[in-house]
């Protein structure tokens, strides 16, 4: 299985369980790996046969920027659904984190895996 990935995508959004977090925008970081047939795209050298990371990245930026979830878990699940349903991705591994949210830690968040690897 091949993968197409997006690493370190940063988007500002409303997220968090505390009252003060509902009044500000915070930066979340998204790391995404998606199964893809890279050999086919390489053979034709056509974006039509590729999983377009730019199109997916723009869709995620738009969705996350407009969202107002409490938990990073919910944000991760909803982004995973969009990527799978709208871009036909069979398997993905997705991390959503809030850099600096926990004093003393570089980053905190969740990683989910959805679908079957082909
Ligand atoms: N598993 C989770 N734990 C916590 C979350 C979360 O989204 N998932 N969120 C918070 C707070 O919003 C925190 O990020 C504020 O600094 C705490 N724990």
Automatic annotation (TrEMBL):
UniProt-listed InterPro entries: Dihydroneopterin_aldolase, FolB_dom, GTP-CH-I_C/QueF
Reactions performed catalytically: 7,8-dihydroneopterin = 6-hydroxymethyl-7,8-dihydropterin + glycolaldehyde; 7,8-dihydroneopterin = 7,8-dihydromonapterin
Catalytic class of the enzyme: lyase
EC number: 4.1.2.25
Assigned keywords, A-Z: Folate biosynthesis, Isomerase, Lyase
Pathway: Cofactor biosynthesis; tetrahydrofolate biosynthesis; 2-amino-4-hydroxy-6-hydroxymethyl-7,8-dihydropteridine diphosphate from 7,8-dihydroneopterin triphosphate: step 3/4
Function text: Catalyzes the conversion of 7,8-dihydroneopterin to 6-hydroxymethyl-7,8-dihydropterin.
Family: Belongs to the DHNA family.
Record's protein name: 7,8-dihydroneopterin aldolase
């Amino acid at each position: 299985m091949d993968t197409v990935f997006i690493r370190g995508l940063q988007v500002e959004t409303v997220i968090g369980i505390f009252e003060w977090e509902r009044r500000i925008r915070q930066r979340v970081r998204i790391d995404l790996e998606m199964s893809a047939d890279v050999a086919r795209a390489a053979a034709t050298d056509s974006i039509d046969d590729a999983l377009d990371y730019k199109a997916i990245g723009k869709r995620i930026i738009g969705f996350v920027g407009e969202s107002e979830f409490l938990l990073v878990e919910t944000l991760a699940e909803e982004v995973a659904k969009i990527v799978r349903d709208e871009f036909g991705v069979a398997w993905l591994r997705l991390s959503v984190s809030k850099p600096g949210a926990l004093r003393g830690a570089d980053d905190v968040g969740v990683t989910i895996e959805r679908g079957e690897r082909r």
